[in-house]
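Lecture 7 notes: from sequence to structure.
We start with the chain below.
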Amino acid sequence: MSTMIGKMEFDALVAEGLGAIPEKFLRRLQNVAIVVEEEPTPEQRRKLKLRRDHTLFGLYEGIPQTVRGGHYYWALPDKITIFRKPILECAGGREAIREIVRDTVWHEIAHHFGMDEPMVRMAEHKRRRRKRGVHG
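Predicted C-alpha cells for the same chain:
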C-alpha cells in the first residue's frame, strides 16, 4: 500500500524525526548533511549489494566520528540520505510514515556516531522495548 504525501510534508517529517533525537546527541552531530532523495541510485544499490527485492529507507555515507583522525576537517560532509519512495511504498498511512522516518533518521545518526549494523539493531530493540514500557 502506498500513501502519497508531498515532498514538503515528507521533508517536515524528516525534520521532526531529527528533532526527536535527544539534545545530547544533536549537539554532537558534526559535519553531516541530511538529505531526502526519491530512492537509492543504481550505484548505491550496487555498492550495498542490494537485490532488486530489497528495500532501503536510509543510508549513512561518511566517516563515523569514532574513526576520524586529526585531518578530518578537510573532509567533505558526511551524508545521511532518507529515501522517500521506499518509505511511502512500505508504510500503511501517515502515522506509519512518521514512525519509519523517525526510526530511519535515528538509525542513520547512530551510524554517524560509529555504531555498526548489529549495534544499531540491538540499540533499536532496546529503544522499542523502552517505548512500550518493557524494561530489562
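Points to note: Residues 38 and 84 are 5 Å apart (CA to CA). The beta strands are 32-37, 58-61, 78-83.
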